[in-house]
Design goal:
- The chain contains 41 helices and 42 strands.
- The chain is of the alpha+beta class.
- The chain has a 7-stranded antiparallel beta sheet with strand order 2-3-12-5-8-9-10, with no helix packed on it. A 7-stranded mixed beta sheet has the order 16-15-17-14-18-21-22. Strands 30-31-32-33-29-34-35 form a 7-stranded antiparallel beta sheet.
- Helix 4 (260-289) packs across helix 6 (339-350) and helix 31 packs antiparallel against helix 32 (1004-1017).
- It starts with a strand and ends with a helix.
- Keywords: ATP-binding, Kinase, Metal-binding, Nucleotide-binding, Repeat, Transferase, Zinc, Zinc-finger.
- Residues 180-528 form the Roc domain.
């Protein structure tokens, strides 16, 4: 909002029309308007500039009249009472108690037509009521009296937890604020560090409690302590008993509009004071000029029904100036003035001169955290056990101060592991410090408005007195230890979170450094951006009710119970209830998952966890290896052993683990699944068939798995198996890998119905498809990466046979590699969105440069610690990249992944021809062949043995008699290329397949010629296909149909989620397309990447055509509903069945419907299309769907050089497979010219054949 160009004569508008200042010489003529009309639900804020020279204050009003219809001359001196007499004006003076230099006034227009006033973020009540909420009105300000100027400023934002949940949550928050707000000063103090470092002792020292020599060990997280201190007092902290909630009733909830009598009296007093001041000015003027005073004119003295203000001066002394008398005032002055004003004027004139000066209370601008404010610290003490790390990281919050505690008398570089657990990682103190600081960075880091990083982290060393016997030696040792920590932290990514200096304290004695550290914590807490945030009073009351329930022993409640509580507090809108619960969930006060699309979320939506500590204890019973059932007569100890040794949790054991909360077992299981801590195990064949008596549900719990030290004994790595890595750039916590294992298990079960072959804490093997498995292996904790291995499976039993077969088999399918990679990146994207917003990762491949490693001085060293990597996205986008040592060709890496989709060849690539009719000279008899084909053929003809046209023909699967036919031509390479392309459908797909085999022959020169030709012919695709990876095969079929109809398509076939290079390509494709087809499946609706594509298309106003590939709820739940709910989808799953014309015919009808819908937005390119008869269409369908499996079986059985076997089965439909009946060489569209016009053309169908048919 800005100020209008129409304003009062005393007003000057500056700073891009955001500042309006009244002249010092006047107290009126200060009317200004907003530059546009605003509606209900809008809020605006102004900052005041004041003077003490006048009486009266700002007036604020609203009008339905466009100020553009006024001229400056039309505006009165005073808004009151002039505009009050006009229609569609609502004006209210602001009390002088609410104005002062630098004060911020915020106004919120409610949907009920009320205007709520906030002064320095404190709610003062309703300023106006009864405005027409369905109309838009202009804002009017009368810069009057002691208000000298106003500046439009940005209103304070809602808490970022509210803002992050969208506009609907912000509106619910602002609506709640209309009932009153209160600043809240509260944060958490998180104590982290190794076991036995002195965290609990430090907590006691900060609280001023007597030190304890023997301190009990913390389990999980200790939430039990809260304390309070007065800001600026530097007094000891006082411990708060029980669960603390901010008081909500400190603010008087008075309505400005309801206090009409007090405001009206203030208004009358201001008018009376200004009349008296006017009389004194007249007296002084007459005394100075020694002239007989003339009575003031009616126009100058008439003050109507306004608080007319005049400039105040020092009251005249009784000796120098006699008091004016009431009888001296012209009666015209009191015309249209209320009787109460007349009474007040007479009272002021009868009073002594000293009392006639208006006394004003000195008011200071409220600060965000005043010195007298009460700050509350909730102290959380984190246990230092590895099994708790996964749970603890769920409770890390940006609204906290963190203190890392370590022992000064311990070697900071010595690796110390927990001897109780052989599989626990051994970390030194410095490595443990690095782990926690990276955890805080990944889970909580944010940048505040002052460009400082939040949350702050303190480093404190304990046991200072153990470093020496005298003060000098202790001081020297402390400097050495803290210097060692400082040197370790130099250059780390989290250094901007650290607060210096570091502290060295002694917990067990009175230490002055404890007091100094306590003051430092107080100062840091006051600087946090969320301190002093305005929280709706009725929300604070709700927090008090929750605190009472906790103190009464309630750990959870139903959503209906929460709604009943909120109803008593005046919170009736479901949107506000949901927003409030999610806000306190983000703050860690309670746990509520009210947004989600899965069945688990439906369960969690109806339950609110009131006590996070209770939930932590319940989860700890499942994850902690320390806890054991207490019942010595427990008869299910075999199930407990299975959980300990294999990480399989059987449902009967839960009744023992959760014996205190058995009725909440579905809720707790849902939370375990929500947190990715467990997933259901599929029953074995014997269990599903009921052969095992008493079968119950069971779950995988990766956190309970044991570590495998010899991973090589678990699988046999073959020469052709494909390996790539996910690099986490220095931080991969074990809890993250466990979450990945949980999600991967679910995904493998969904796509193949198989449980993992084996699972350990650091490695697991999963089913991918009938031909492939894949492994995930977490490298050493110091390497921070995950190794991914794609394997072709064999049925042999022994390791030696398996290794021999593996080496003889072709490499895994590129489609399989891309499928695993896409899942991992999607999985990590979801985890980052939900849990670890600043986790960094990239997919890399081992560099093949075979350089000499520095550690072992060995060329091409394969030790995991000696490997160096290339970014996979860069390798897939470029043929040559640079590693740290030399230039590297990427063909050896790119061949394992699908080629990126390229456009350019759509429609017929070559003219129709018959090889027999060319009389052995294709170049002469077919002169209109493209130049790139001739150039490619020339290179193949001159190629060396093993890389020439003959080798390519064999690689493509041609038999010797066909190769002899090509050899009879004067240009055999050209004859081969033309035959392959035309026989393969004469489309760009045949050229794409050709480039695959050229790369296998290492003919990058020929591939480059083809690629340049594509780039020259390439134009923007008309259709962008947005889809989720699992439906790729169906989308490829749709793409094929659209391109046959003349609509060029863009779709990613192997790299979705593949980094910035692909994102740029997707952005370019969406911007240049004419329409977007979104292929809707249940997984499509939950994909963050698909959501981004759809949002960009909607933002660019691209036509969106939804095509339902799998049955999905409509409109899809979540953010996509906003885009898709108004669109009509085409259901590809509603084809075939009873009463239909067959699946194929129904599918063709759906394709025609899609094409018809596309035709409304773009036109097909028909110049490249060839006419196709219905019979040919049927044959094309037969080729693509019925003969694919037969061809694959034949090629596998005859092992044609391994070339076609290595192609992914899902990509084989690129090569059209003809009817197997024809065996003769290829003759395309050979029609007898002498046939009768009405002769049957059915026989012409079988003469069009592709190369695969000839091979067979």
């Amino acid at each position: 909002m800005k100020f209008h160009s129409v304003h009062g004569s005393a007003v000057t508008v500056t700073e891009n029309r955001t500042v309006a200042v009244r002249s010092d010489l006047e107290f009126c003529n200060g009317i200004v308007f907003s530059d546009h009309a605003i509606k209900a639900g809008h809020k605006f804020c102004i900052k005041l500039s004041c003077t003490q020279a006048w009486s009266g204050a700002l007036r604020v009003g609203f009008t339905l009249n466009d100020p553009g219809r006024f001229t400056p001359a039309d505006l009165p001196k005073y808004s009151v009472p002039y505009f009050l007499k006009k229609d569609y004006f609502w004006i209210r003076p602001i009390s002088e108690n609410f104005t002062g230099e630098g004060y911020k006034l915020m106004f919120y227009i409610g949907i009920d037509g009320s205007v709520q006033l906030f002064v320095n973020n404190e709610h003062k009540g309703a300023l106006l009521v009864g405005l027409p909420a369905d109309r838009a009105f202009w804002v009017m300000f009368d810069i009057y009296g002691n208000t000298k100027g106003i500046k439009i400023v940005k209103p304070d934002d809602a808490p970022k937890e509210i803002t992050a949940r969208g506009q609907e949550a912000v509106k619910a928050y602002e609506s709640a604020c209309t009932s009153g707000m209160k600043p809240v000063c509260r944060t958490r103090l998180m104590l982290v560090g190794k076991d036995g470092s002195g965290k609990t002792s430090l907590k006691n020292a900060l609280l001023g409690q007597r030190p304890e020599v023997e301190v009990s060990r913390t389990t999980g997280i200790d939430f039990s302590t809260s304390c309070m201190f007065t800001v600026g007092a530097r007094e000891p902290w006082s411990v708060i008993a029980g669960n603390y909630a901010s008081p909500a009733m400190d603010i008087k909830e008075a309505s400005v509009s309801c206090d009409v009598e007090a405001l009206e009296e203030e208004y009358h007093q201001a008018i009376a004071a200004n009349i008296v001041q006017e009389l004194y000015q007249q007296k002084r003027k007459m005394s100075a000029t020694q002239k007989t005073p003339k009575p003031p004119s009616r126009e100058s003295q008439k003050l109507s029904n306004s608080s007319g203000a005049k400039k105040l001066s020092k009251p005249p002394s009784a000796s120098s100036l006699s008091n004016p008398k009431f009888s001296e005032i012209p009666q015209e002055t009191f015309k249209e003035v209320p009787e109460r004003v007349v009474q007040l004027v007479q009272k002021l004139l009868d009073a002594p001169p000293q009392e006639q000066q208006k006394s004003q209370d000195s008011v200071t601008l409220a600060t965000k955290v005043p010195d007298t404010a009460k700050m509350v610290l909730d102290i959380w003490d984190f246990a230092a056990k590895e099994e708790y790390y996964t749970i603890q990281q769920m409770f890390l919050s940006p609204r906290a101060l963190y203190v890392f505690v370590f022992k000064l008398n311990q070697d900071l570089e010595e690796n110390v592991s927990d001897k109780k657990y052989a599989y626990s990682e051994s970390l030194s103190t410095l490595e443990y410090l690095d782990f926690w600081l990276k955890s805080i960075l990944a889970h909580t880091s944010s940048v505040s408005s002052s460009s400082t990083f939040s949350p702050p982290v303190f480093i404190v060393g304990t046991h200072r007195d153990c470093l020496g016997e005298d003060d000098e030696s202790i001081k020297k040792a402390v400097e050495e230890k803290l210097g060692q920590v400082q040197d370790f932290l130099v250059g780390k990514p989290y250094i901007q979170h650290l607060v210096t200096p570091f502290y060295a304290v002694n917990n067990l004695t009175d230490d002055s450094l404890i007091a100094e550290f306590r003051i430092k914590l107080e100062e840091a807490s006051c600087r946090e951006p969320y301190i002093g945030e305005q929280i709706p009073i009725r929300w604070i009351r709700f927090e008090q009710e929750v605190s009472i329930l906790k103190n009464n022993g309630a750990n959870y409640a139903t959503y209906d119970q929460m709604s009943e509580i909120t109803g008593h507090l005046g919170i009736v809108e479901s949107t506000e209830v949901s927003t409030m619960l999610k806000f306190y969930h983000d703050l860690g006060v309670l746990i509520y998952y009210g947004s989600g699309k899965s069945a688990v979320d439906n369960l969690l939506r109806n339950t609110v966890i009131l006590n996070p500590k209770w939930l932590l204890e319940m989860i700890s019973h499942v994850l902690s290896v320390q806890w054991k059932p207490q019942d010595k007569w427990n008869l299910i100890r075999d199930k407990w052993t299975r959980l300990q040794e294999f990480g399989i949790l059987e449902e009967p054991l839960l009744d023992t683990l959760w014996h205190e909360a058995r009725e909440q077992k579905p809720l707790l299981l849902g939370l375990l699944e929500k947190f990715d801590l467990a997933c259901q195990r599929l029953p074995s064949v014997a269990e599903s068939q009921g052969l095992i008596h008493g079968h119950n549900r069971s779950f995988y719990v990766p956190a309970r798995l044991t570590k495998c030290s010899e991973s090589n004994s678990l699988y046999c790595m073959g020469e052709n198996d494909i390996t790539f890595y996910v690099n986490f750039h220095g931080f991969l916590p074990g809890g993250l890998f466990q979450r990945i294992i949980t999600r991967t298990t679910k995904w493998s079960q969904d796509i193949g119905g198989q449980n993992p072959y084996f699972m350990y804490k650091n490695i697991a093997r999963f089913f991918l498809d009938v031909e492939h498995d894949f492994l995930l292996e977490m490298a050493s904790s110091k390497l921070h990466r995950i190794k991914v291995v794609i394997l072709r499976v064999s049925e042999s039993e022994s390791d030696s046979e398996r290794r021999q077969l593996s080496n003889a088999m072709s490499p895994p399918s590129p489609h399989a590699c891309a499928k695993v990679r896409n899942f991992l990146e999607s999985c990590l994207s979801d985890i980052r969105e939900m849990w670890m917003r600043r986790i960094s990762y990239s997919v890399v491949a081992r560099c093949p440069c075979e350089c000499v490693c520095e550690t072992h001085k060995k060329e091409g060293c394969l030790d995991e610690s000696c490997l160096h990597f290339l970014n996979l996205d860069e390798c897939l986008a470029n043929k040559i990249v640079m590693c740290d040592h030399r230039r590297v060709k990427t063909s050896g890496i790119r061949k394992f992944f699908p080629e990126p989709l390229t456009l350019g060849f759509y429609g017929p690539v070559l003219p129709s021809m018959s090889l027999r009719d060319l009389c052995g000279n294709i170049e002469k008899n077919c002169p209109n062949l493209p130049s790139w084909v001739k150039s490619a053929a020339k290179l193949l003809n001159n190629g060396e043995s093993g890389r020439d046209w003959n080798s390519l023909a064999r690689e493509l699967g041609y038999k010797q008699n066909q190769i002899n036919l090509f050899n009879d031509d004067l240009n055999p390479g050209l004859a081969l290329l033309a035959d392959w392309i035309v026989a393969g459908g004469n489309t760009g797909l045949a050229v794409d397949a050709l480039t695959v085999y050229l790369e296998k022959l290492d003919r990058e020169d020929v591939v480059e010629i083809i690629q340049k030709a594509k780039d020259q012919e390439q134009g923007p695709a008309k259709v962008f296909l947005s889809y989720q990876w699992d439906s790729q095969d169906e989308v490829k079929g749709l793409r094929s149909q659209l391109e046959k109809s003349g609509f060029t398509c863009w779709m990613d076939i192997g790299q979705i989620g593949g980094g910035d290079h692909l994102y740029a390509k997707i952005d370019e494709a969406i911007r240049n397309c004419k329409a977007v087809i979104c292929c809707v499946t249940p997984k499509f609706t939950t994909s963050q990447l698909c959501m981004k594509e759809l949002s960009l298309a909607d933002l660019l106003r691209k036509p969106i055509i939804p095509v339902m590939i799998e049955h999905t709820i409509w409109p899809p739940p979540g953010g996509m509903a906003l885009i898709l709910s108004q669109l009509v989808y085409i259901n590809m799953k509603g084809v075939g069945g009873h009463g239909g014309t067959g699946i194929h015919a129904d599918r063709q009808d759906k394709y025609r419907e899609i094409i018809q819908r596309l035709s409304l937005h773009t036109t097909p390119d028909t110049c490249h299309l060839e006419p196709e008869t219905d019979t040919e269409s049927k044959k094309s369908h037969l080729i693509e769907h019925e003969m694919l499996s037969n061809f694959t079986e034949y090629t596998d059985r005859n092992s044609m050089g391994g070339s076609l076997i290595s192609m992914p089965l899902s990509d084989m439909h690129r090569l059209p497979v003809p009817n197997f009946q024809a065996q003769q060489p290829i003759v395309l569209r050979q029609v007898d010219s002498g046939a009768a016009p009405n002769a049957r053309t059915v026989e012409q169908v079988n003469v069009s054949q592709c190369k695969i048919c000839s091979i067979l």
